[in-house]
Amino acid sequence: MAFYPSHLRSLFTDRERELDLLQQATASLADGRPRHLALFGLRRIGKTLLLLEHAARLLETSPAGPVRPVYVDFEELVTSPELFSRRYVGLVTFWAITQGSGEIESFLTPTGLLGGPAAGLRTVAQTLAALQDARDDPATQVTLALDFPEKLAQELDCRLLLLLDEFTELAVLSNYPSVRRPLQLFRAAMQRHSRLGYVIAASAISAMEKMVQDGRSPLFLQFEQVEVSHFPPDATLALVERILGYTPSPGVGRRLHQLTGGHPFYIHAVTTRLVQRQTFTRASSEIGPDDVSRAFILETLSRTGQIYNYCRYLYDISLQRARGYGILKAILQVLAEEEKLTLSELARRIHKTAPTTRGYLRALQEVDMVVENEGVYFYRDPVLRYWAAYTTRGIEVDAFASRTVLSPLLADLEAQYSRLSTELGLAQESSVRELLRRLAGREVDGALLGTSAPVQLPAFVRVEPYRSPDGQIQVDALAETSEAENEERWAVEVKWRGKAVGKKELAALLQKARSLNARPWYVSRSGFTPAARTYAAAHGVLLSTRADLEKLERQLAES
Ligand SMILES: Nc1ncnc2c1ncn2[C@@H]1O[C@H](COP(=O)(O)OP(=O)(O)OP(=O)(O)O)[C@@H](O)[C@H]1O
Ligand SMILES: [Mg+2]
């Protein structure tokens, strides 16, 4: 398929849960009950591949089915209202009638469209004429374009699944005063549609959260959230095997997972380098964990590295987008070296007042560089932090650096790698969610959840972070069964810090869980105080420590 080259597709790994959710949404649309999904996930985590894979599977399994996929990347599309409108009409037509294969050129201009493959389509001609009439009215143009897929679906008597990648770019249209509120236009259009299902995705996490989770956004509550997260260890290994073409020693998969945190782009980059290096040196000996570490360092700290170049790009564009370049750079440098700092600590380091510093930090949060958790600020992406810690001090390595040159870096990395993947609060929250998804429906040893009897986990169908519409209640995971299963819910809090969790914190979770009608589960890296354990036993709060989580992971891997 032209839109999804086979060299990319042959490496596609895992994502069964997410594909399942996309399939369910597709089936609902086919039944005339459209549901809309929003995919959330870090940059390069695999959102685009997931959309393409779903489109490909849909076209393969039901080429003549009632639902046709349409993949549109807003990053390339959204410029001026006029161009956006014309190209959106062209792309939707292209996908609806050619199923994403064939020549796209003739779909991108009105003359091409009217004279070419879309010549017989009434709605295309009508919409293009209406766009022409509205040439002095950009808001109307955008609305005409957004309503076009519904009309086309009617004419073709089908339904369209619109996969809108980099959806947050739609906001660019607000730079045109006459359009001003593109999201409002989008929302209004959605209300008029019955033949369309929307799946939106974007790399700008904070911007996306604002769009679909904030009560003030027109798109609030219009989308079900789906988290596209890091790979679990078995998927990491599966991807490595695909790239290498054989199964490496167990230590290799484990080290790769630790260093990359299960991020598929990083896994791909490091493994590809391992392959190249082996070909280059014609080494026939087996790859070991230290080769993985060396490849990681070369990928991240040499200019030939994909990860290096990606980090550089991300760093530059993020800083360009945020205001206050020089100071932001200073903050990022301090955070790269010291990892985790509170607001007042940071303010002191950069010689600014706390309120000023908070403003700068907010700018860094908005571009997804930095996150805050319980008053502590740190990099969202630990690999980016690693890169910045070295490169901002001018440390880079040569692509063919010798073992001697690499050895101090290797030692340093060794001291860091467990931290790189496991110590991050955020990564941890998403791995707890991932764990819950995989444990759904299974029975586990009660001791790992702080109780004596075995615990049967409900067959959860949704596990996502939760925030109440008014923003008052927030939990790291809300796990829910389908309605048919009597709607069982768990509310989960994850704390990943050095101090044991006390009674007060459990009480806070208990209260949230009660108002959500959910069973509370507290996960704490450093365990719980004795008073907290007594309280938990008395109030039915489940408790797990880091060691418990590791055992749960191991049991899953073995089963
Ligand atoms: N499921 C997967 N199987 C194998 N490799 C994957 C998978 N997902 C992602 N990758 C690897 O990560 C790279 C980035 O994936 P993709 O472009 O889909 O991410 P994205 O989330 O859309 O990123 P961006 O934020 O840049 O839009 C891919 O080119 C591939 O190497
Ligand atoms: Mg993408």
Could you describe the 3D structure shown?
This protein is α/β, with parallel strands linked by helices and 559 residues long. The protein folds into 4 domains: 6-227, Rossmann fold, CATH 3.40.50.300; 233-302 and 410-423; 316-391, Winged helix-like DNA-binding domain superfamily/Winged helix DNA-binding domain (Arc Repressor Mutant, subunit A, Orthogonal Bundle), CATH 1.10.10; 428-558, Trna Endonuclease, Chain: A, domain 1 (3-Layer(aba) Sandwich), CATH 3.40.1350. Helices cover 53% and strands 13% of the residues. It is built from 24 helices and 15 strands. It has helices at 6-9, 16-30, 47-61, 74-77, 81-98, 110-115, 122-133, 138-156, 182-192, 205-213, 233-244, 250-260, 264-281, 289-301, 306-321, 325-338, 343-350, 354-366, 382-391, 403-422, 425-439, 503-515, 530-539, 546-558; strands at 37-40, 67-73, 159-165, 196-202, 224-227, 341-342, 370-373, 376-379, 443-444, 455-456, 462-467, 474-480, 489-495, 519-524, 542-545. The strands form 4 sheets. Strands 2-3-4-1-5 form a 5-stranded parallel sheet, with helices on both faces. The mean pLDDT is 89. It binds adenosine-5'-triphosphate (ATP) and magnesium ion.
